[in-house]
Specification:
With 348 residues, this protein is α/β, with parallel strands linked by helices. It contains 13 helices and 12 strands. The strands form 3 sheets. The protein has a 7-stranded mixed beta sheet, sandwiched between helices. It has a 3-stranded parallel beta sheet with strand order 7-6-8. The structure holds beta-D-glucopyranose (BGC).
Length: 348
Amino acid sequence: MKRTIVAAMAAAFMATAFAGGAIAKGNTIAVSWGTKQEERWKTDEAAIKGAIEAAGDKYIFADAQQSAQKQLADVESLISQGAKVILIFAQDGEAIKPALEKAKAEGITVIAYDRQIEDPNLLYITFDNVGVGRLMGKTMVEKGRKDGNFAFIKGDPGDPNATFLYNGMMETLKPLIDSGKIKNVCETFTDNWKPDNAQKNMEQCLTKTGNKVDAVMSENDGMASGVVAALNAQGMAGAVPVTGQDGDLAALNRVALGTQLVSVWKDSRILGKTAGEAAVAIAEGAKVGDVAKGNTFADGAKKVKMSAILIPPMAITQDNLDAVIKAGWITKEKACAGADAAKVAACK
Ligand code: BGC
């Protein structure tokens, strides 16, 4: 009996030790999620967890469910569970700052994941968010509208990405606004990036303008679903180009159907793997500056210089929808459901 238990324990140890071909190092690495509302976060999480477990380390997490207050308690709990490195995907980039002090006091390194927390000691791993906004603006002007009444449906005000995206859009749109070609008729932040709130914001914009809206700059795909629902209720879906980002499956289908102009795709399988591997290296003693290969980011609200890894995004429209299908991000069936194959090459 005893021998069986010992043998079972040894087998279990070997299985852990050699999972993914690596010797277990047994470090605990934590992720504090601000939200998991959007579809993408499941993909990010699987990639982070995969990289951590492949190295023989342990993944633990907490989900603050969009409460900045809960996230502070979550980080404390992750510290008490023995985390050596904590990735924080911040619900609010400022409100989270007291948690950084606690981590620092315990010698724990923090990685700001996807959303910036402006602090010089952190490693910031994200997509090029200004670049995402730039692609939204450029695609709108080149393939949607370069004049008329524009609505801006921005993300949550506590998320620095909402402003990075807006700044990126403005690189293309500002000169057209200044020359009077484009008129900014509605501009709103959207609490918690909620699709329902975005729908309400869009409905109010349509009421205010008497439906005189020619283009909508929505900062993500979830909100674009709310925007398109509001347009649809007025018989305007498909006639008004709408932006988004994340490569949500429903959004890519809307691109094929023509009710959304573009989804800026960010392959979060790559972001998650990069961050998971960085955390593993830091838990083994690597310095954040070395992990970032000396690259830095200093374009935040306070211009604080941080070690940073920025991954480039890609705009997906009807013209290159095959890119996400070929990358195994979405099946042709899902992307093309109900689409006109004569108009969308990827759906032939
Ligand atoms: C992320 C987006 C996401 C949004 C809502 C942003 O910070 O960069 O990918 O759609 O948050 O979670």
